[in-house]
Design goal:
This protein has 268 residues and is mainly alpha-helical. It has a domain at 67-236: 3-Layer(aba) Sandwich (Glutaredoxin), CATH 3.40.30.10. It is 51% helix and 9% strand. It has 12 helices and 5 strands. It has helices spanning 2-14, 20-27, 45-50, 54-64, 80-98, 125-140, 145-156, 161-171, 176-186, 189-203, 233-240, 253-260; strands at 69-75, 102-108, 113-115, 118-120, 215-218. The strands form 2 sheets. Strands 2-1-5 form a 3-stranded mixed beta sheet. Belongs to the GILT family.
Protein backbone atom coordinates (compact mmCIF):
# COMPACT_ATOMS: atom_id res chain seq x y z
CA UNK A 1 0.00 0.00 0.00
CA UNK A 2 2.82 2.41 0.91
CA UNK A 3 4.53 1.65 -2.40
CA UNK A 4 1.36 2.55 -4.30
CA UNK A 5 1.04 5.87 -2.43
CA UNK A 6 4.70 6.62 -3.05
CA UNK A 7 4.35 5.95 -6.77
CA UNK A 8 1.23 8.15 -6.89
CA UNK A 9 3.10 10.99 -5.18
CA UNK A 10 5.93 10.72 -7.69
CA UNK A 11 3.38 10.84 -10.53
CA UNK A 12 1.78 14.01 -9.15
CA UNK A 13 5.17 15.66 -8.62
CA UNK A 14 6.30 14.87 -12.17
CA UNK A 15 3.13 16.47 -13.54
CA UNK A 16 3.61 19.57 -11.43
CA UNK A 17 0.76 19.18 -8.95
CA UNK A 18 3.08 19.55 -5.95
CA UNK A 19 5.50 21.87 -7.71
CA UNK A 20 5.55 25.31 -6.00
CA UNK A 21 6.89 26.93 -9.16
CA UNK A 22 3.93 25.59 -11.13
CA UNK A 23 1.56 26.90 -8.49
CA UNK A 24 3.15 30.32 -8.76
CA UNK A 25 2.75 30.26 -12.54
CA UNK A 26 -0.96 29.52 -12.20
CA UNK A 27 -1.47 32.24 -9.63
CA UNK A 28 -2.01 34.98 -12.22
CA UNK A 29 -3.33 32.90 -15.11
CA UNK A 30 -6.39 31.63 -13.25
CA UNK A 31 -7.86 35.13 -12.84
CA UNK A 32 -11.52 35.43 -11.89
CA UNK A 33 -12.73 37.88 -14.55
CA UNK A 34 -15.89 38.56 -12.56
CA UNK A 35 -13.71 40.15 -9.86
CA UNK A 36 -11.94 42.63 -12.14
CA UNK A 37 -12.98 46.28 -11.54
CA UNK A 38 -14.73 47.82 -14.58
CA UNK A 39 -12.11 50.57 -14.78
CA UNK A 40 -9.55 47.88 -15.73
CA UNK A 41 -11.60 46.23 -18.49
CA UNK A 42 -10.15 48.22 -21.39
CA UNK A 43 -6.70 48.88 -19.93
CA UNK A 44 -4.91 45.89 -21.47
CA UNK A 45 -5.59 44.08 -24.76
CA UNK A 46 -4.76 40.65 -23.35
CA UNK A 47 -7.05 41.17 -20.36
CA UNK A 48 -9.83 42.52 -22.59
CA UNK A 49 -9.67 39.49 -24.87
CA UNK A 50 -9.26 36.86 -22.14
CA UNK A 51 -12.17 38.10 -20.05
CA UNK A 52 -14.58 38.81 -22.90
CA UNK A 53 -14.66 42.58 -22.48
CA UNK A 54 -13.87 43.24 -26.14
CA UNK A 55 -17.41 44.15 -27.23
CA UNK A 56 -18.01 46.82 -24.60
CA UNK A 57 -14.46 48.18 -24.98
CA UNK A 58 -14.83 48.42 -28.75
CA UNK A 59 -18.12 50.30 -28.33
CA UNK A 60 -16.48 52.74 -25.94
CA UNK A 61 -13.44 53.21 -28.18
CA UNK A 62 -15.50 53.80 -31.32
CA UNK A 63 -17.85 56.27 -29.59
CA UNK A 64 -15.00 58.15 -27.90
CA UNK A 65 -12.33 58.11 -30.64
CA UNK A 66 -10.88 61.61 -31.00
CA UNK A 67 -13.80 63.05 -29.00
CA UNK A 68 -13.18 65.59 -26.27
CA UNK A 69 -13.79 64.55 -22.68
CA UNK A 70 -16.73 66.65 -21.49
CA UNK A 71 -16.20 68.10 -18.04
CA UNK A 72 -19.14 69.91 -16.43
CA UNK A 73 -18.39 71.90 -13.28
CA UNK A 74 -21.17 72.88 -10.88
CA UNK A 75 -20.03 75.82 -8.77
CA UNK A 76 -21.08 79.08 -7.11
CA UNK A 77 -19.21 82.33 -7.48
CA UNK A 78 -18.54 83.21 -3.82
CA UNK A 79 -17.64 79.73 -2.59
CA UNK A 80 -13.96 79.81 -1.49
CA UNK A 81 -13.40 76.18 -2.50
CA UNK A 82 -14.92 76.84 -5.93
CA UNK A 83 -12.69 79.87 -6.41
CA UNK A 84 -9.63 77.84 -5.45
CA UNK A 85 -10.58 74.97 -7.78
CA UNK A 86 -11.25 77.24 -10.77
CA UNK A 87 -8.08 79.30 -10.36
CA UNK A 88 -5.59 76.67 -9.19
CA UNK A 89 -6.76 73.49 -10.94
CA UNK A 90 -9.37 73.93 -13.66
CA UNK A 91 -7.71 76.82 -15.47
CA UNK A 92 -4.02 76.06 -14.96
CA UNK A 93 -3.99 72.26 -14.98
CA UNK A 94 -6.88 71.51 -17.34
CA UNK A 95 -7.75 74.44 -19.62
CA UNK A 96 -4.19 75.53 -20.38
CA UNK A 97 -2.75 72.01 -20.75
CA UNK A 98 -5.68 70.02 -22.15
CA UNK A 99 -7.77 72.67 -23.92
CA UNK A 100 -7.82 70.74 -27.21
CA UNK A 101 -8.94 67.53 -25.52
CA UNK A 102 -11.50 68.70 -22.95
CA UNK A 103 -14.84 70.47 -23.38
CA UNK A 104 -15.42 72.52 -20.23
CA UNK A 105 -18.96 73.48 -19.24
CA UNK A 106 -19.37 75.83 -16.28
CA UNK A 107 -22.67 76.05 -14.40
CA UNK A 108 -22.70 78.96 -11.89
CA UNK A 109 -25.57 78.01 -9.60
CA UNK A 110 -24.21 75.55 -7.03
CA UNK A 111 -26.12 75.18 -3.76
CA UNK A 112 -28.65 77.91 -4.54
CA UNK A 113 -32.35 77.21 -4.03
CA UNK A 114 -35.02 77.95 -6.60
CA UNK A 115 -38.49 78.41 -5.12
CA UNK A 116 -41.29 79.50 -7.44
CA UNK A 117 -38.79 81.18 -9.74
CA UNK A 118 -36.99 83.05 -6.96
CA UNK A 119 -33.34 82.08 -6.47
CA UNK A 120 -31.74 82.23 -3.02
CA UNK A 121 -27.96 81.78 -2.87
CA UNK A 122 -25.82 80.19 -0.18
CA UNK A 123 -23.56 83.23 0.22
CA UNK A 124 -26.23 85.90 -0.04
CA UNK A 125 -27.67 88.27 -2.62
CA UNK A 126 -24.29 89.36 -3.96
CA UNK A 127 -23.51 85.78 -4.91
CA UNK A 128 -26.82 85.58 -6.79
CA UNK A 129 -25.85 88.75 -8.62
CA UNK A 130 -22.43 87.38 -9.58
CA UNK A 131 -23.81 83.96 -10.52
CA UNK A 132 -26.22 85.67 -12.92
CA UNK A 133 -23.43 87.84 -14.28
CA UNK A 134 -21.28 84.78 -14.96
CA UNK A 135 -24.19 82.96 -16.61
CA UNK A 136 -24.44 85.88 -19.03
CA UNK A 137 -20.67 85.97 -19.56
CA UNK A 138 -20.65 82.26 -20.37
CA UNK A 139 -23.38 82.88 -22.94
CA UNK A 140 -21.95 85.92 -24.73
CA UNK A 141 -18.16 85.54 -24.51
CA UNK A 142 -16.83 83.26 -27.22
CA UNK A 143 -14.06 81.75 -25.07
CA UNK A 144 -15.44 82.27 -21.56
CA UNK A 145 -13.18 80.13 -19.34
CA UNK A 146 -10.33 82.69 -19.12
CA UNK A 147 -12.85 85.39 -18.15
CA UNK A 148 -14.41 83.24 -15.42
CA UNK A 149 -10.92 82.39 -14.17
CA UNK A 150 -9.97 86.07 -14.13
CA UNK A 151 -13.14 87.18 -12.36
CA UNK A 152 -13.03 84.39 -9.77
CA UNK A 153 -9.39 85.23 -9.12
CA UNK A 154 -10.33 88.89 -8.58
CA UNK A 155 -13.11 87.89 -6.19
CA UNK A 156 -10.74 85.56 -4.36
CA UNK A 157 -8.32 88.45 -3.82
CA UNK A 158 -11.08 90.63 -2.35
CA UNK A 159 -12.34 92.63 -5.33
CA UNK A 160 -16.03 93.24 -5.88
CA UNK A 161 -17.80 92.33 -9.12
CA UNK A 162 -17.84 96.00 -10.18
CA UNK A 163 -14.08 96.23 -9.57
CA UNK A 164 -13.04 92.88 -11.00
CA UNK A 165 -15.11 92.57 -14.17
CA UNK A 166 -13.71 95.71 -15.91
CA UNK A 167 -10.15 94.57 -15.14
CA UNK A 168 -10.86 91.21 -16.76
CA UNK A 169 -12.41 92.77 -19.85
CA UNK A 170 -9.32 94.93 -20.24
CA UNK A 171 -6.81 92.15 -19.52
CA UNK A 172 -8.42 89.76 -22.00
CA UNK A 173 -9.07 92.46 -24.64
CA UNK A 174 -12.78 91.68 -24.78
CA UNK A 175 -14.57 94.01 -27.15
CA UNK A 176 -16.88 96.68 -25.62
CA UNK A 177 -19.94 95.44 -27.49
CA UNK A 178 -19.47 92.01 -25.86
CA UNK A 179 -19.09 93.42 -22.35
CA UNK A 180 -22.16 95.61 -22.96
CA UNK A 181 -24.17 92.50 -23.88
CA UNK A 182 -23.06 90.75 -20.69
CA UNK A 183 -23.94 93.75 -18.51
CA UNK A 184 -27.32 94.25 -20.20
CA UNK A 185 -28.09 90.54 -19.74
CA UNK A 186 -27.06 90.55 -16.07
CA UNK A 187 -29.23 93.59 -15.33
CA UNK A 188 -32.30 92.28 -17.12
CA UNK A 189 -34.74 89.42 -17.36
CA UNK A 190 -32.54 87.43 -19.74
CA UNK A 191 -30.04 86.98 -16.93
CA UNK A 192 -32.83 85.59 -14.75
CA UNK A 193 -33.70 83.18 -17.55
CA UNK A 194 -30.07 82.05 -17.78
CA UNK A 195 -30.03 81.34 -14.04
CA UNK A 196 -33.24 79.32 -14.31
CA UNK A 197 -31.57 77.23 -17.00
CA UNK A 198 -28.51 76.71 -14.81
CA UNK A 199 -30.80 75.71 -11.94
CA UNK A 200 -32.37 73.03 -14.16
CA UNK A 201 -28.95 71.77 -15.27
CA UNK A 202 -27.86 71.49 -11.65
CA UNK A 203 -31.05 69.81 -10.44
CA UNK A 204 -31.19 67.38 -13.37
CA UNK A 205 -27.70 65.86 -13.18
CA UNK A 206 -27.82 62.06 -13.21
CA UNK A 207 -27.64 59.59 -11.55
CA UNK A 208 -26.16 61.11 -8.35
CA UNK A 209 -27.30 64.54 -7.20
CA UNK A 210 -24.64 66.98 -6.06
CA UNK A 211 -23.87 67.13 -2.34
CA UNK A 212 -21.43 70.03 -2.42
CA UNK A 213 -19.57 72.31 -4.82
CA UNK A 214 -17.42 72.24 -6.79
CA UNK A 215 -19.02 69.09 -8.24
CA UNK A 216 -17.79 67.37 -11.40
CA UNK A 217 -19.84 65.64 -14.10
CA UNK A 218 -17.91 63.55 -16.63
CA UNK A 219 -19.38 63.00 -20.11
CA UNK A 220 -22.85 63.74 -18.76
CA UNK A 221 -22.60 61.31 -15.83
CA UNK A 222 -22.67 62.52 -12.22
CA UNK A 223 -21.17 60.07 -9.71
CA UNK A 224 -20.32 60.66 -6.08
CA UNK A 225 -17.43 58.21 -6.32
CA UNK A 226 -15.90 60.20 -9.20
CA UNK A 227 -15.43 63.36 -7.13
CA UNK A 228 -12.03 62.22 -5.88
CA UNK A 229 -10.72 63.06 -9.37
CA UNK A 230 -11.07 66.74 -8.43
CA UNK A 231 -7.46 66.77 -7.20
CA UNK A 232 -6.10 64.62 -10.02
CA UNK A 233 -7.90 65.74 -13.16
CA UNK A 234 -4.88 65.52 -15.52
CA UNK A 235 -4.45 61.80 -14.77
CA UNK A 236 -8.16 61.19 -15.31
CA UNK A 237 -8.10 62.98 -18.67
CA UNK A 238 -5.01 61.07 -19.80
CA UNK A 239 -6.69 57.80 -18.89
CA UNK A 240 -10.07 58.55 -20.50
CA UNK A 241 -9.10 60.32 -23.68
CA UNK A 242 -9.14 57.98 -26.69
CA UNK A 243 -7.50 59.41 -29.79
CA UNK A 244 -4.86 59.09 -32.47
CA UNK A 245 -2.78 61.79 -30.83
CA UNK A 246 -2.67 61.69 -27.02
CA UNK A 247 -2.27 64.99 -25.16
CA UNK A 248 1.38 66.03 -24.90
CA UNK A 249 0.79 66.89 -21.24
CA UNK A 250 0.24 63.17 -20.57
CA UNK A 251 3.87 62.33 -21.34
CA UNK A 252 5.10 63.45 -17.95
CA UNK A 253 2.23 62.00 -15.93
CA UNK A 254 3.86 58.57 -15.52
CA UNK A 255 7.19 60.03 -14.44
CA UNK A 256 5.47 62.32 -11.95
CA UNK A 257 3.58 59.39 -10.47
CA UNK A 258 6.79 57.41 -10.03
CA UNK A 259 8.51 60.35 -8.35
CA UNK A 260 5.62 60.63 -5.90
CA UNK A 261 5.89 57.02 -4.78
CA UNK A 262 7.35 56.72 -1.28
CA UNK A 263 9.73 53.82 -1.90
CA UNK A 264 9.99 51.52 -4.89
CA UNK A 265 12.54 49.35 -6.65
CA UNK A 266 12.21 50.04 -10.38
CA UNK A 267 12.25 47.12 -12.81
CA UNK A 268 15.16 47.55 -15.26
Amino acid sequence: MLNILALFSIFLTIHGYFNPVNQRKNLFTDVNCARIPPSFWCSNDQLTKTCGFAEVCNRYSQASKNQKVKLTVLYESMCPDCQKFITDILYRDVYLKFGDFVEIELVPYGNAKNKNGTVTCQHGEEECRINKYESCALHYINEPVPFIYCLENQLRMGSTLDQGAPKCYETLHIQPHISDQVIHCANGKYGDKMQQEDAKKTDNIWPDKHEYVPWLVFNGVSLKNAQFFIKNLPSAICEWYVGDRPPSACRGIGNTRRKNLNSVCMND
